[in-house]
Design goal:
four-stranded mixed β-sheet, three-stranded mixed β-sheet, 11 strands, membrane
């Protein structure tokens, strides 16, 4: 009985009202503080940085009070200048707060070097061509050479010079195939 009497007493109800008022004031105060501290609704638009080199990108971002971080370079794209921006996150036109990092992917200076795989000689042309194309090479001239194995690849050449397994060539290089004609 004393418990119910205490719950409905004037002192308890007064303390309950004071606690509710303090809670509401604290929550309202915290929300106002966060609104001011986080610069709510104060944003800048992310510029389009594609095809710009890093020195120009730095100037643009500094003017807008933004920062940058370079991610690992991507595959070489001949439509973009070397060391220029290929991609960015967040995308151009997005609204961000000041001092936000913009993540950039840069275009390397050229194609990567790809190693010529082993065991391409004495295989058929039908086996060798897709392998080279899958590695990013282009097939150039087919040079026929007298050999007993008709259609077998006898060797590979690049710009007139013989290339061996393990040699490295830039991706998209043209490789000529020396193929047996079956005349022996």
């Amino acid at each position: 009985m004393k418990f119910f009497k205490f719950i409905f007493s004037k002192a308890f109800l007064l303390q309950l009202i004071i606690a509710a008022v303090v809670t509401v004031v604290l929550v309202f105060g915290a929300l106002k503080y966060l609104d001011i501290k986080t610069d709510h609704n104060e944003t800048v638009e992310v510029p389009d940085l594609s095809k710009f080199e890093l020195d120009i990108v730095d100037k643009k971002l500094e003017e807008m009070n933004l920062r940058r971080e370079v991610l690992d370079s991507a595959n070489y794209n001949p439509n973009y200048p070397p060391y220029s921006v290929l991609d960015q996150v967040p995308k151009p036109g997005k609204q961000v707060k000041e001092n936000r990092k913009i993540y950039l992917t840069l275009n390397p200076s050229g194609y990567i070097d790809v190693e010529i795989p082993k065991d391409l000689t004495r295989k058929t042309r039908r086996q060798v061509e897709p392998t080279l194309i899958a590695l990013g090479f282009q097939i150039g001239d087919i040079i026929m050479k007298p050999d007993i194995a008709k259609g077998a690849v006898l060797g590979l050449r690049h710009k007139g010079e013989t290339i061996e397994a393990g040699d490295k060539l830039p991706k998209t290089s043209t490789i000529d195939l020396v193929v047996g004609d079956g005349s022996l």
